[in-house]
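Structure first, sequence second, as always.
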């Protein structure tokens, strides 16, 4: 018998139904889930293989765990494949273009404007959407997309079942009813974020970053340079994607000239147009709705200004005289009718060979704020020097600079990683200081006398803060920080600049050479092998196929711990610890880790080792019970008294202490279960609904 469980933050459980009909008619289940339940109850489910994505009774791929929302669960909504909607569906018809994007019943114009901008750049589109896919040769109901997440591209596989009503798609669609690339791309992004309803309202710049791996910043149009056409041309020449909006009115209501309030548009071109009266600077704008256009000067249908432009000039601009969502307007009207602009800067790794676009060179570094070690807080506190530091060398000046002074332009971005998944938004900022004449690191004494040459205007809780500026050639120090000291968090630092400039992690001087002997190094460095030695250990202990199973991890950790200040605590390491560490970091459901997965686990182990050593104040290689809650808080996990009582009963040794391996095990379990809850709690309601089978899978495989 299959049952449905509803879990809430209060821990309440509804009565469990005992009949199939009540389960299959549950208002929280969509038609796709009902079919899955029917398959399971009739014994037609394929055998388990460790992969929740499998095939249905028709032999086509079905993603049974795609998160469902309220709209697609309503009466009359049916999940259908494109082959059920038209006789000969196509993935792409005559190339994927910005006009293939038409909004459905979701407030996700923020996403659609990013998709429209993406479609202008074929190399970017191919990165997100491999174009070899089709509904003909090799078709099995499965489509693959890729999205950028915190420095790497993640693959997302989906089936092609799409929610429909009266045989029409209810979400994004193409004006060509035979074309489905944009609908499937929207579904893949929905899966990445936790379901279609997770796309209801959002920030276009975040979607653009996820689709390009670029750096996004938000600008007020009123504060942009006076020569706006030149500024916009420079951005587009660097390959930037640009969205714009007007937030001075009610949601998606129109002003008197047709511009929607709080609605994301894409800016795709800037052109100097020849008219019989001279030249005029125009911008090309796209409304992802596919209709509702600008009705002022230069509008498609009502603009008499086009009568002053030759047919050849209009053809050069690809002007189309119909209400398709795309229109031209003057730069002055653009300033008056749009308030905000979101710009996504691209790097050279995303450029297309032979393109006239000359994007930035990207330098990327991952880092961590570790409480009491590398989380010094803001400059107002006394521990700012503890924050991670990066040594910036600017030597390549801007080409064709208009002023006489040599300057180096750059875009610096600081992104906090996975914070929203943990329900925490840190306030973060960037500061740039002149470097010490002889050292690549600034001490507390240095920072007490220096002032930043450039910094964020304020601390922000956005996922990413961006600092764009220009400095003379020279040596500088970048310091990323949180507003409060001793806050746990991981970050990604990116520098977009001209080829030839560089940024590297600053090397802290040896303790005996430092003016302040109280400045700590990373404690884990005395407890764990170096990165090079760790990779050697992985190769030594993994199997011939390059995978690390629990028994391999047990042997690896035992050898790793024996060589440091925690030597002896490996006696508390048991195989059960290693089984959990493997399955909780295993992304493929095969109970073993490849090298990238092991690297992710090892990064956590290093951070948690730092915290363990800081809170093991009496150096007994174990935490006293009263030290555990503050240590968990330093790791970013808040627990109440009830949870701490359970920790005492379940995870402590007989003397009520937690060993080093036990601390790693406890943190891994807590973080994993929190992440799983938040993955199901798509809109942050504090409760989740899971099927009986999902509950067993979630609790048994951990």
């Amino acid at each position: 018998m299959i049952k449905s469980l509803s879990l809430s933050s209060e821990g309440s459980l509804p009565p469990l139904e005992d009949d199939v009909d009540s389960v299959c008619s549950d208002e929280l289940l969509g038609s796709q889930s009902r079919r899955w339940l029917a398959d399971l109850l009739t014994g037609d489910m394929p055998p388990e293989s460790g992969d929740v994505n499998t095939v249905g009774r028709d032999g086509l791929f079905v993603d049974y765990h795609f998160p469902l929302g309220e709209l697609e669960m309503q009466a009359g909504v049916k999940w259908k494949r494109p082959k059920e909607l038209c006789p000969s569906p196509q993935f792409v018809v005559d190339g994927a273009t910005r006009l293939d994007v038409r909004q459905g019943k979701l407030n996700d114009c923020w996403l659609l404007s990013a998709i429209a901008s993406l479609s202008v750049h074929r190399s970017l589109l191919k990165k997100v959407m491999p174009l070899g896919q089709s509904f003909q040769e090799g078709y099995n109901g499965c489509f693959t997309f890729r999205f950028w997440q915190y420095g790497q591209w993640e693959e997302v596989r989906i089936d092609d079942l799409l929610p429909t009503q009266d045989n029409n798609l209810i979400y994004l669609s193409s004006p060509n009813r035979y074309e489905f690339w944009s609908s499937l791309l929207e579904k893949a992004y929905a899966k990445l974020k936790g379901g279609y309803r997770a796309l209801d309202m959002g920030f276009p710049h975040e979607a653009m970053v996820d689709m390009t791996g670029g750096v996004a910043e938000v600008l007020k149009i009123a504060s942009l340079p006076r020569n706006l056409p030149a500024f916009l041309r420079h951005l587009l020449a660097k390959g930037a994607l640009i969205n714009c909006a007007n937030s001075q009115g009610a949601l998606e209501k129109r002003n008197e000239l047709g511009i929607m309030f709080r609605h994301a548009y894409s800016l795709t071109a800037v052109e100097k147009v020849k008219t019989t009266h001279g030249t005029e600077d125009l911008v090309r704008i796209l409304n992802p709705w596919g209709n509702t256009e600008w009705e002022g000067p230069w509008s498609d249908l009502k603009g008499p200004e086009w009568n002053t432009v030759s047919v050849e000039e209009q053809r050069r601009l690809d002007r189309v005289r119909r209400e398709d969502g795309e229109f031209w307007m003057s730069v002055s009207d653009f300033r008056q009718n749009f308030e905000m602009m979101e710009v996504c800067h691209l790097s050279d790794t995303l450029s297309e060979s032979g393109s006239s676009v000359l994007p930035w060179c990207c330098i990327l570094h991952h880092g961590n704020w570790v409480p009491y070690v590398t989380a010094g807080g803001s400059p107002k506190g006394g521990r700012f020097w503890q924050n991670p530091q990066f040594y910036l060398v600017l030597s390549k000046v801007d080409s064709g600079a208009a002023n006489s002074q040599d300057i180096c332009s750059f875009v610096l971005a600081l992104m906090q990683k996975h914070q929203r998944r943990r329900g925490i938004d840190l306030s973060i900022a960037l500061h740039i200081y002149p470097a010490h004449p002889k050292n690549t690191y600034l001490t507390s004494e240095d920072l007490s006398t220096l002032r930043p040459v450039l910094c964020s205007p304020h601390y922000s809780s956005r996922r990413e803060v961006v600092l764009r500026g220009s400095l003379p050639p020279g040596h500088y120090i970048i310091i990323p920080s949180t507003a409060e000291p001793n806050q746990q968090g991981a970050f990604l630092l990116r520098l977009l600049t001209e080829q030839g400039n560089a940024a590297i992690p600053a090397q802290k001087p040896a303790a005996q050479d430092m003016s302040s002997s109280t400045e700590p190094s990373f404690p884990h460095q005395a407890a764990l092998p170096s990165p090079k030695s760790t990779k050697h250990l992985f190769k030594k202990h993994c199997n011939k196929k390059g995978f690390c199973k629990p028994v391999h991890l047990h042997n690896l950790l035992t050898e790793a711990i024996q060589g440091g200040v925690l030597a002896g605590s490996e006696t508390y390491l048991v195989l059960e610890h290693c089984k959990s560490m493997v399955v909780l970091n295993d992304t493929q459901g095969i109970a073993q880790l490849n090298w990238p997965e092991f690297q992710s686990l090892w990064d956590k182990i290093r951070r948690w080792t730092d915290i363990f050593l800081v809170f093991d104040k009496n150096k007994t290689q174990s935490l006293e019970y009263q030290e555990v809650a503050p240590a968990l808080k330093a790791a970013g996990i808040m627990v109440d008294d009830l949870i701490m009582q359970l920790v005492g009963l379940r995870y402590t040794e007989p003397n009520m202490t937690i060993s080093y391996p036990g601390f790693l095990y406890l943190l891994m379990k807590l973080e994993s279960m929190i992440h799983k809850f938040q993955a199901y709690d798509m809109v942050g309601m504090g409760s989740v609904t899971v099927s009986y089978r999902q509950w067993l899978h979630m609790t048994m495989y951990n």
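Margin note: Confidence is low (pLDDT under 50) at residues 1-53, 511-520.
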